Write a sequence for this structure.
């Protein structure tokens, strides 16, 4: 977890950069590419895809020294929802994307400027996901709610698939073997068919969990924006898609980001086959690390990832709320949503898929 204290010297200047200016865009992209703490969610490709698919404004904040040298960056999405209220989020629909900067003064200046944008947009909540976290009294740091899971892949080479399977702990490895015994088909790509089948599987998966599905336009926009740095892996049983995941690739790391399976997937061990196949696919692409993403502490997904041999690492987020305003609650595990989740699980899939995107695009 990275912290910064209030600066003792004059803060750098912060401004809103216009990414439509090609010179400015090239300068920022080069800075992001060179910064060691930048994640896939700091890319302009992510921020612009989210904005295009959801209608949430993207604000690109940059900090600069007196000589004009860029020293920090923060992408913000102004999320608005009639159900969940308004919030400024960095970054929208991401598990990371907070402040990255060369020094504490730049980070503090970006945090202050982000709060000023909240006042401008009349958003009572500001959420910074990862990155450098402010420590002044106006902020609340949350470090116990979520954990990340990442580990190195085995080295590529002779018999690497077998070695990757043996890397998985014994009990989980047995589940993978049961799935492999069915000889299901694994396909990767970004074609129209890949996209259609992935969204259908993912939409059914989240309906079964009781949560609304994101707009299909969001998946399409991210795939288009990331190009070769994103793809879909789908597992088919007798030609029927039963599990599918959309993954992001960044600096030698694969992150399975939006994935799930239909009801039959559990019995088929299709999800187990899917993640094992993705490990091998990513390694052949040149990846050396597998980022299993974020999970709520003590959730089913948290236990599932531990069973695969991944050790949880606490994730820290910073939240600031306007005086007298309660924090925004969009956690699907919150007791206040228990009845709604139970109702959603019983909805016909066609109804859930029609209503879900309108609701989910306000989650941010």
């Amino acid at each position: 977890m990275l912290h910064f204290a209030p600066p003792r010297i004059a803060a750098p200047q912060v401004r809103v950069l216009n990414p439509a200016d090609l010179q400015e865009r090239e300068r920022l992209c080069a800075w992001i590419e060179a910064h060691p703490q930048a994640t896939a969610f700091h890319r302009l490709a992510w921020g612009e895809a989210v904005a295009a698919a959801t209608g949430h404004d993207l604000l690109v904040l940059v900090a600069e020294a007196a000589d004009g040298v860029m020293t920090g960056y923060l992408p913000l999405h102004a999320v608005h929802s009639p159900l969940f209220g308004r919030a400024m989020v960095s970054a929208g629909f991401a598990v990371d994307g907070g402040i990255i900067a060369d020094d504490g003064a730049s980070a503090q200046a970006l945090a202050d400027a982000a709060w000023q944008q909240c006042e401008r947009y009349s958003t009572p909540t500001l959420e910074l996901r990862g990155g450098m976290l402010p420590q002044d009294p106006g902020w609340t740091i949350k470090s116990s709610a979520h954990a990340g899971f990442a580990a190195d892949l085995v080295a590529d080479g002779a018999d690497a698939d077998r070695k990757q399977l043996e890397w998985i702990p014994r009990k989980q490895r047995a589940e993978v073997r049961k799935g492999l015994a069915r000889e299901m088909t694994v396909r990767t790509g970004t074609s129209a068919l890949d996209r259609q089948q992935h969204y259908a599987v993912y939409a059914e998966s989240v309906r079964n969990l009781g949560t609304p599905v994101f707009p299909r336009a969001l998946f399409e926009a991210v795939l288009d924006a990331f190009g070769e740095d994103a793809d879909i892996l789908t597992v088919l049983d007798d030609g029927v898609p039963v599990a599918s995941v959309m993954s992001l690739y960044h600096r030698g790391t694969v992150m399975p980001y939006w994935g799930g399976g239909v009801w039959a997937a559990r019995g088929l061990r299709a999800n187990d086959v899917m993640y094992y196949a993705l490990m091998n696919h990513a390694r052949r692409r040149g990846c050396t690390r597998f980022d299993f993403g974020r999970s709520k502490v003590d959730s089913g997904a948290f236990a599932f990832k531990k069973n695969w041999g991944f050790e949880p690492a606490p994730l820290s987020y910073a939240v600031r709320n306007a005086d007298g305003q309660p924090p925004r609650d969009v956690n699907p595990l919150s007791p206040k949503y228990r009845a709604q989740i139970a109702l959603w699980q019983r909805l016909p899939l066609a109804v859930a898929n029609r209503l879900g995107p309108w609701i989910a695009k306000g989650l941010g």
